[in-house]
Amino acid sequence: MTMSYSGTTALITGASSGLGAEFAQRFAARGSNLVLVARRVDRLEDLAQQLRSEHGITVTVLPMDLGRAGVGAELFTELAGRGIAVDTLVNNAGFGTHGLLVEEDPAVIASEISLNVAALVDITRAFLPGMLASGKGALVNVASTAAFQPIPGMAVYGATKAFVLSFTEAVAHETKNSGLNVLALCPGATRTEFFDVLGSDSAAVGRMQTSAQVVDTALKALDRKGTPGSVVSGWTNRVAAGIAQRLPRAVTVAIAARAVQDW
C-alpha cells in the first residue's frame, strides 16, 4: 500500500542535493508540505520553487548550518514561531572523511561527529514528541552500509553511521506502539556529491545506486504494514551486510580496509 502524506509536513535536512533532494521530490509527490534545510540557499530555493509549481504544496526554506550545539531546539523554535508542526523527519545531512586517523584534521573530525551524530540526535529529540502525537508520518535517519563493520581509512565516518543505525533501531523499538514509522536507511555507494566532499572515490565499494533507487527502498519499507527498524538498499549490499555480521570481527575489518584504502 502506498501511503499518502497529504496534509502533513516533512522536515528534510541536507535537502539541497542527492538523497535529500530526492526525498523532497517523493514526499511532495505524495502530498506532503516541506521544510528544506541545508546550507546552500540558492539550491534550496530552486528546488522549493520547482516543487511548489509541480505539486501545489507549501515549501519552507531554512538555510542553516546544522553542526552546532543546540540546533534541534533552534530549529524547533524557528518552525513553531511560523506555526509549522512536523509530522515526518528525514535526517539526511552528513559527510564523511577518508584517510588515516593520525593524518585527519581534528577540526574536520569534530564537525563530522557534530553533524552525523550530535545534530541527528538533537533534532530527533526536539521533534519526536510532536511526531508521536501526530502519528501520521515517519522518522528516517540515513545511516550507511558502513555501519555494519569498522572501516580503517574511514574510522570516524563508519563509527558515526554505526551510531545512527544503533540509535534508530532503539528508537524504533521504543515507539513501536505508536503510529510513527521509524527507519534507519542504510545505502551503499550512491551517485551523490558525497564522494566529492570525501575527496576520493576509492571508498565507493560495490555497484553504485542512484538516489532514486535508495529512496525507493526507504519508501517501500515505510509503506509496509510493519516497517522494519532498518533497511539496506540494494540486494548486493544486503548480502554484504549480512556476511559482515557473521564473519569474525577481525576478518571484516581486514576486508573493509582493503576495500577503501587508496594509499
TrEMBL record:
Entry-linked SUPFAM superfamilies: NAD(P)-binding Rossmann-fold domains
EC number: 1.1.1.298, 1.1.1.381
Record carries keyword Iron: no
Alphabetically ordered keywords of this record: Oxidoreductase
Catalytic activity annotation: L-allo-threonine + NADP(+) = aminoacetone + CO2 + NADPH; 3-hydroxypropanoate + NADP(+) = 3-oxopropanoate + NADPH + H(+)
InterPro entries, sorted: NAD(P)-bd_dom_sf (IPR036291), Sc_DH/Rdtase_CS (IPR020904), SDR_fam (IPR002347)
Top-rank lineage group of the source organism: Bacteria
Function: NADP-dependent dehydrogenase with broad substrate specificity acting on 3-hydroxy acids. Catalyzes the NADP-dependent oxidation of L-allo-threonine to L-2-amino-3-keto-butyrate, which is spontaneously decarboxylated into aminoacetone. Also acts on D-threonine, L-serine, D-serine, D-3-hydroxyisobutyrate, L-3-hydroxyisobutyrate, D-glycerate and L-glycerate. Able to catalyze the reduction of the malonic semialdehyde to 3-hydroxypropionic acid.
Protein family: Belongs to the short-chain dehydrogenases/reductases (SDR) family.
Name listed for the protein in its UniProt record: NADP-dependent 3-hydroxy acid dehydrogenase YdfG
Top-level taxonomy: Bacteria, Bacillati, Actinomycetota, Actinomycetes, Micrococcales
